[in-house]
Design goal:
Layout lengths: L7 E7 L3 H10 L7 E7 L7 H9 L6 E3 L11 E3 L5 E5 L2 E5 L11 H12 L3 E5 L8 H9 L3 E5 L8 H9 L4 E3 L4 H11 L9 H10 L6 H5 L3 E6 L6 E7 L2 E5 L5 E3 H39 L3 H30 L1
Parallel strand pairs: 1-2, 1-7, 2-4, 3-4, 7-8, 8-9
Antiparallel strand pairs: 5-6, 10-11, 11-12, 12-13
């Protein structure tokens, strides 16, 4: 639990177009700020940590580093999530998680925001800027319900406004500001915040604990919500529906978690991949059937050869229909 002396925790979540936005925000932070800053930016697994670090450091008066597991949280330090690892905050330490992706991303903005909300409550300032889809919305709600402060980039200036708009549709944010005024809003919150001792919701605490583990159990997840009719598109396990105010998301016992929109998108990706696998298997079966037909024909067994040739023709027709369907899906 934070004390009057502990620094504020600023959490910044960004996706597409986010590197420039993050650079703009940190450029307006004072070197003596009473806060530690944590950054999650969606990048590919192959992204280079050193390049990410140098791009942020170039604009920042504060020292920047790639976050390391169990290192202490220091005032005036910027911690950046490494590609393909979750970044969490727990009491006075940084945690690095290797659990499954949430909202199809690792690092996930929701994972960072939720952990900060549980650990530092009213001393958290959550910030969402440009990006696709809605990672960060559930995390921002966790911050709000735990007494923290919520800032959102003005979607009118965001390069990709999906993430700011998603938060604004679901969470009662405290301030919507352009990037150039983000530093002023942060400083005002730090200077005027009243710490009243608000406790985070039990469901937020429980999910934050699950995110610290690589996997959990069915019993633990079932306590958070109701079993849904859906299966996890990544592992095939059951999904539980979890409600936080107006928001609903889904989690399996392995640790995969999705908002409704992300679940819909991932289902589509999995369906397409499954259909392409079916096309491949049918193509291979067609080749084998044609081989058998030729061999029987060469031996003079024309009736059997004709039977297999008919199978090959039928498979070819099915493959053509499947490909037409898949090409239609890819255009949607």
């Amino acid at each position: 639990m934070p004390t009057e002396q502990s620094p504020f925790i600023i959490t910044i979540g960004a996706s597409a177009g986010g590197l420039s936005a993050i650079g703009e925000i940190v450029s307006h932070l004072h070197k003596d700020i009473n806060a530690a800053i944590f950054v999650v930016l969606h990048l590919s697994k192959a992204a280079m940590s050193d390049i990410l670090l140098s791009r942020v450091q170039k604009n920042s008066p504060l020292p920047c580093k790639i976050a390391e597991d169990k290192e202490p949280i220091r005032q005036g330090q910027i911690y950046i999530a490494a590609p393909d690892t979750h970044l969490l905050v727990k009491e006075d330490k940084v945690l690095i998680g290797q659990g499954p992706p949430e909202n199809r991303f690792r690092p996930s903005i929701d994972v960072l925001f939720r952990s900060a909300a549980v650990s530092h409550r009213e001393k958290v300032i959550g910030i969402i800027v440009t990006g696709f889809l809605n990672d960060g919305t559930i995390g921002m709600q966790a911050i709000k319900h735990s007494g923290g402060y919520c800032l959102v980039q003005d979607p009118n200036e965001a390069e990709y406004p999906d993430m700011p708009l998603s938060v604004l549709e679901s969470v009662e944010v405290d301030h919507v500001v352009p990037l150039r005024k983000m530093g002023e809003a942060i400083l005002e919150r730090i200077n005027t915040a009243e710490i009243k001792g608000i406790s985070p919701p039990e469901s937020v605490v429980a999910e934050s604990k699950l995110s610290e583990k690589a996997a959990t159990s069915i019993e633990e997840v079932s306590k958070l919500g109701d079993e849904s009719a859906f299966s996890c598109p990544d592992c095939g396990g059951r999904l539980w529906s979890i409600k936080n105010g107006k928001l609903k998301h889904y989690r399996c016992h392995i640790g995969h978690a999705y908002s409704e929109n992300d679940l819909l998108l991932r289902q589509g990706e999995t369906t397409e991949a499954t259909l392409w696998a079916a096309v491949r298997m049918m193509e291979e079966r067609k080749l084998l059937v044609e081989k058998i037909a030729r061999e029987h024909g060469d031996r003079g067994l024309y009736k059997i050869s004709s039977h297999y040739s008919e199978q090959s023709k039928s498979l070819r027709e099915h493959i053509t229909r499947l490909k037409e369907l898949l090409f239609g899906i890819s255009k949607q």
